[in-house]
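Technical annex B. To support the medicinal chemistry partners, we prepared a structural model of the target in complex with nicotinamide-adenine-dinucleotide, based solely on the information shown next.
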Amino acid sequence: MSNNLLKGKRGIIFGALNPDSIAWKVAERAFEEGAVITLTNTPVALRMGETNELAKKLNTIVIGADATNIDDLNNLFIKSMEYMGGKIDFVLHSIGMSPNVRKERHYSDLDYNYLDKTLDVSAVSFHKVLQTARKLDAINEWGSVVALSYVAAQRTFFGYNDMADAKALLESIARSFGYIYGRERRVRINTISQSPTVTTAGSGVKGFDRLLDFAERMSPLGNATAEECADYCITLFSDLTKKVTMQNLFHDGGFSNMGMSLSALQQYEKGLHHDCNCGDNEDGHKYD
Ligand SMILES: NC(=O)c1ccc[n+]([C@@H]2O[C@H](COP(=O)([O-])OP(=O)(O)OC[C@H]3O[C@@H](n4cnc5c(N)ncnc54)[C@H](O)[C@@H]3O)[C@@H](O)[C@H]2O)c1
């Protein structure tokens, strides 16, 4: 259902890899709400993924960019403004990747070159996007920039590894840049802290299916889906949230304010007679 919330607005969407991607749903919803958008992803993702099909569906173009590369980002903003005929009103940063997670490096045995990559791709890229946009004066007054985060930025989650550090940095960048961009050009910058969601990046997290079940049991409203996340993004891109900035906004069915729910407790009780063997991991890590 469209309410024309983004009618006349121009947006750039990072990170739509395939139909499971949260960014894919956001792009579809933005288009439905009357926006014109350009899509972007890395050259590798454009070869392996389905971003080009989405572009056809939404009658737009894809501009390849590695979000850690300033030249690519300059080209992306300039080409997007040319194609859409004016400055940008909203940007979605929907990017995450950790080589330490991919290679199953334990958090107490990180590869620091991988950590640099995790932080650069998953967090510093957000700063690079904002700095590039500001230098080009590419975003309209009252424009809105959103990045996607996860509650592991505040609380420790088994297996989330160095992505937790990346998300903490990402949320900090939203605050620090939000001050500057807000004062100068009234551009608002927020992060949405989303429930676990079945996507390519999400499924890379250790024990993801159980995490999904646990979060579902803990959240009074249940896990937020990718479609619901897209709806929330649309409100933040719209003129209905003009004074919301520098916030980390939980979109998680209430999970982040729960301690224990009956449903999670009952499930836990079922397993009480089994020993979880938490201390006996093959790799010798007592607390994983
Ligand atoms: N899936 C979840 O459970 C979940 C929960 C909370 C937050 N998030 C966050 O949502 C965002 C989107 O992830 P998703 O779950 O839709 O998975 P996804 O795998 O569909 O999207 C991740 C995207 O990042 C892109 N990317 C990787 N490196 C890049 C680079 N150098 N430059 C530009 N793009 C790059 C990938 O190509 C991909 O399109 C991420 O920030 C993720 O951490 C996901």
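Notes passed to the chemistry partners:
Strands lie at 10-14, 36-40, 88-93, 139-149, 188-194, 248-251.
The pocket of nicotinamide-adenine-dinucleotide is lined by residues 14-15, 17, 20-23, 41-42, 45, 66-68, 94-97, 121, 148-150, 194, 196-197, 199-202 (CB under 6 Å).
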